[in-house]
């Protein structure tokens, strides 16, 4: 099938404009998505941190107030129930968050209490007494037990409290009782409202959670979540890094942008390990990005229509001189005497033939570059020695010239003490040492053979011998290598000594398979290592020893 140039160019213009518009729109939308996600995430994290700080400061304030009340009672060793009762009533009047405050004697009997609740009762079996008699105690949120029936509860919802208690001691350090308080958990909802109310004026679908440290149980949040465990990766991260934000799938299957802050306490209040979680549905958070994406799509379509018109006009201008050249070519083909017209305005058409000639020259240069690159691929970049690829080519050529008297001796080299140099002086020094070893091996290399770096500190030398005693030649050559490498190297003013262990195998004496010969030489090398290093062992000798 063939198409007119104008049609093709117009289609190309339309396709490219559409792709560019959609790509740019998509990229901007993604960038906007990431920027908005980061902004919302940081905002929710900051809000969660603010809420966590409010919770900690509130608990610290109540704890300090109760502690101050106890100090006032102990200041003059005045532990009269009537006087303490007056202090308790004043405290509750000033801070309604105290649902109940009481004073117990050392045996746990309540001697003074706000509103007379539990007065005369023995609370020695309750945690608020048992922990408070030991020292300052702040308990986590729990349901009311004794107070549930005694305190007013107009909402009918289960009452929850936070306990604070500590021992009262006189000036001599003797324990005179326990001061305890139950803080109403309702104040946490006030914190929630103070945090969320400004947000809800600007955002939608934002929810607030307080999660306890114990089993990550939800203490405050939507009714369906109260008392249930909340397992989120972000909560575990926040408990390690204090605060974070994340976008993750919640147990209800929806994606939420979630800000999380872990309670760190305030001043001498260590905190209860609560985690504040604020979330927003991802689809709601990124509604503006979705609107922008659709705007970009419609804009891209409009731009595409415009570019189709532009492409049609441009393609006509480009196709016109080519059509004239085609007409002239047809006239020349039938033998008419015509001149090729000069086409002004498009230098590309005028320079077409010259570009073709330059292209041919460029292709020839590319061929030369490919040859150079192929040569580079045959050499080790660190040492400049031939590599495994070069070894394969060498063996292919050498095995093609195989004859009865033709012997290839494979010498497998491994440096003794190289690892010690690497570990003590560093890999850079080790690399320089390998380069110097390669230089010495090159200085000893024979015309009929190849010296290859296999990797690390392992080298392979293939000797090509046509003589009566190739093994003796190889042995003498190996001794020269060992003597050369035993001489000290000087690298950055450090005098370094290493050794060299060598294993040898012969082709085709030991095997007709080159890979098997290399394996045999490697095995002989390890025999040299076991025998004390810095020596040469042939595979044939290894077999005879066995």
TrEMBL record:
Q: Which UniProt keywords apply?
A: Cell membrane, Membrane, Transmembrane, Transmembrane helix
Q: How does it sit in the membrane?
A: Multi-pass membrane protein
* Transmembrane spans: 293-314
- Which CDD domains has this protein been placed in? GGDEF (cd01949), HAMP (cd06225), PDC1_DGC_like (cd12914)
Q: Which Pfam families match?
A: dCache_1 (PF02743), GGDEF (PF00990)
Q: What InterPro entries is this protein classified in? A: dCache_1 (IPR033479), DGC-Regulatory_Protein (IPR052163), GGDEF_dom (IPR000160), HAMP_dom (IPR003660), Nucleotide_cyclase (IPR029787), Rev_trsase/Diguanyl_cyclase (IPR043128)
Instruction: Report the protein name in the record.
Output: Diguanylate cyclase (GGDEF)-like protein
User: What is the source species?
Assistant: Paenibacillus tundrae
């Amino acid at each position: 099938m063939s198409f007119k140039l104008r049609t093709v160019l117009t289609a190309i213009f339309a396709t490219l404009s559409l792709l560019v518009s959609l790509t740019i729109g998509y990229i901007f939308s993604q960038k906007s998505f990431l920027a908005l996600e980061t902004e919302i995430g940081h905002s929710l994290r900051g809000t969660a941190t603010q809420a966590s700080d409010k919770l900690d400061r509130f608990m610290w304030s109540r704890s300090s107030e109760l502690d101050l009340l106890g100090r006032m009672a102990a200041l003059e060793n005045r532990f009269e129930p009537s006087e303490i009762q007056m202090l308790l009533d004043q405290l509750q009047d000033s801070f309604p968050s105290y649902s109940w405050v009481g004073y117990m004697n050392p045996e746990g009997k309540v001697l003074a209490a706000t509103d007379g609740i539990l007065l005369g009762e023995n609370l020695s079996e309750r945690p608020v007494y048992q922990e408070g008699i030991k020292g300052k105690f702040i308990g986590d949120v729990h349901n009311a037990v004794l107070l549930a029936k005694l305190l007013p509860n107009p909402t009918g919802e289960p009452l929850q409290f936070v306990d604070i208690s500590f021992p009262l001691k006189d000036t001599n350090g003797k324990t005179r009782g326990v001061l305890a308080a139950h803080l109403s958990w309702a104040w946490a909802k006030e914190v929630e409202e103070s945090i969320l109310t400004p947000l809800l004026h600007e955002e939608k679908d934002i929810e607030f959670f307080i999660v306890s440290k114990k089993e990550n149980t939800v203490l405050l949040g939507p009714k369906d979540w109260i008392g249930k465990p909340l397992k989120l990766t972000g909560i575990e991260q926040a408990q390690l890094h204090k605060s974070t934000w994340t976008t993750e799938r919640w147990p209800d299957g929806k994606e939420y942008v979630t800000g999380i802050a872990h309670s760190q306490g305030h001043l001498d209040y260590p905190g209860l390990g609560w985690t504040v979680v604020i979330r927003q549905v991802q689809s709601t958070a990124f509604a503006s990005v979705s609107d922008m994406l659709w705007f970009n799509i419609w804009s891209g379509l409009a731009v595409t229509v415009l570019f189709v018109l532009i492409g049609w006009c441009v393609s006509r201008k480009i196709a016109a001189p080519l059509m004239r050249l085609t007409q002239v070519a047809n006239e020349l083909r039938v033998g008419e005497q015509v001149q090729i017209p000069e086409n002004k305005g498009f230098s590309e058409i005028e320079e077409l033939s010259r570009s073709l000639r330059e292209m041919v020259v460029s292709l020839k240069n590319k061929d030369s570059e490919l040859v150079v690159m192929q040569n580079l691929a045959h050499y080790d970049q660190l040492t400049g020695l031939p590599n495994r690829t070069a070894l394969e080519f060498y063996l292919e050529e050498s095995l093609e010239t195989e004859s009865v008297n033709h012997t290839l001796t494979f010498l497998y080299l491994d440096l003794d003490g190289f690892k010690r140099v690497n570990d003590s002086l560093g890999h850079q020094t080790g690399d320089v040492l390998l380069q110097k070893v390669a230089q010495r091996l090159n200085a000893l290399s024979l015309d009929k053979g190849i010296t290859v770096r296999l990797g690390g500190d392992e080298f392979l030398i293939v000797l090509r011998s046509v003589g009566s005693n190739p093994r003796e030649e190889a042995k003498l050559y190996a001794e020269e290598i060992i003597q050369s490498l035993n001489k000290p190297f000087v690298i950055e003013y450090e005098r370094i000594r290493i050794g060299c262990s060598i294993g040898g195998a012969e082709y085709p004496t030991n095997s007709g398979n080159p890979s098997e010969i290399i394996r045999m030489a490697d095995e002989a090398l390890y025999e040299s290592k076991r025998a004390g290093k810095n020596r040469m062992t042939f595979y044939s000798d290894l077999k005879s020893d066995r």
